[in-house]
Amino acid sequence: MTARVAVAPSEPPSSLAARLARLIAAGGPISVAQYMAAANAHYYASREPFGSAGDFITAPEVSQTFGEMIGIWLADLWQRAGRPAPVHYVEAGPGRGTLARDALRVMARFGLVPQVHLVETSTRLRACQAEWLPAAHWHADFSTLPEDGALLFVANEFLDALPVRQLVKTAAGWRERLVGHRDGRFRPVAGERPMDAAVPSALRAAQVGAILETSPAAAAMVADIAARIAAQGGAALVIDYGHDESRLGSTLQAVRAHAGADPFADPGEADLTALVDFSVLAPIAQTAGVRWLGTIEQRHFLAALGIAARIAMLARRAPARRDALEAALARLTAPDQMGQLFKVMALAAKGWPDGAGFAPA
Fold it and tell me: How many helices (H) does the chain have, and how many strands (E)?
């Protein structure tokens, strides 16, 4: 089954909230997943959210060295796999195309010049990507990707924006956490249907108020990626902020103008995300037939690829930028910034070598 990300046409800022309010008034509260999907579909279809002028900055926008490290990792793996051809670079949710541009530039130095395939549903973002990657092929989902060669997948800060489902423990048992609308405000409410059977037995006795969060969409996406790699050969890097062991609690959050916001206020006007549970995704990928090379912190991954040496080289070439370059390095690798919270999960087809930075599986 191919995972898809729904995209709504661009609407005036207030119309999505009004439409959701009407939907809830007619049929009752909607799931957190439905609310999040509608909000993010509108959000990404109606603006370019990246960079200092947007709502947030992703790692590729922090420094060119981030994309360069991705390119080095992929090129090294491809070389040690015997330089298979044809080969395709596939990126899910490529933003403005910054990561792909930097990674492909480095890959070319090693003789790796793959066809470029971008999985993107936003017409606005496709136009941005085309400025830097005019030869790319665009896809709405994975179903139209080529089937004639190895695939090198990259998904950076993509899974965190996929809808999450939440269950909440009430005095009457576990219920789905829904979104209602009252007095002009959206707010979470507990559903009426018992959901205890959907909760792992070890968690059913949790305290009242506990929240169990899952992302069926992220699970389906990783299963799709793994299945394609298993069938065609290749590897994947999934990079996102999240945890490597399951835990209770809501991680749903909103970012607007580089600051936290209420995720239930002004749907479609802020980026809604949730932490990725990598501990769930690894076995899903293995079940699909690929090797899980490991899940490590971003700081360890980038250090293994030599990001500090690359930053030092750039600083020697442009001394006036030394402070900015070192600040970018800290932002990407410091434990209290992106270095520890962000994780990197690597997958590879059977018969492909281990990836740099990951212990042999």
Answer: 11, 16
Q: Residue 334: is its pLDDT beyond 90? A: yes
* Dist. CA 268–CA 11, nearest whole Å: 9
Q: Could you report the per-residue pLDDT of 121-143, keeping only the tens digit for each? A: 888 889 999 999 999 999 999 99
Q: How many residues does the chain have?
A: 361
Q: Do 228 and 151 meet the contact criterion of CB atoms below 8 Å apart?
A: yes
- Got the DSSP string for 27-86? H--EEHHHHHHHHHHHHHHH---BSTTSSB--HHHH-HHHHHHHHHHHHHHHHHTT--SS
**Closest C-alpha to 339, from 251, 239, 215:** 239
Dihedral of CA 318/319/324/325: which sign? positive
Look at strands 185-194 and 150-156 and give their pairing: unpaired
Helix (H) or strand (E) holding 241: strand 234-243
Per-residue tokens: 210: 């506990």
Q: How far apart are alpha carbons 154 and 48 in whole angstroms?
A: 21
Which strand (E) or helix (H) includes residue 153? strand 150-156
Q: pTM for the complete prediction?
A: 0.89
> What is the Cα–Cα distance from 310 to 320, expressed in whole angstroms?
16
Domains contained in the chain, CATH given: 13-162+215-348 (3.40.50.12710)
Q: What is the pLDDT of residues 19-43, one digit of tens each?
A: 999 999 999 999 999 999 999 888 8
User: How far apart, in whole angstroms, are the C-alpha atoms of residue 187 and residue 262?
Assistant: 10
As beta bridge partners, residue 358 has none
Going by pLDDT thresholds of 50, 70 and 90, the confidence category of residue 53 is low
For residues 335 and 343, the answer to whether their CB atoms sit within 8 Å is: no
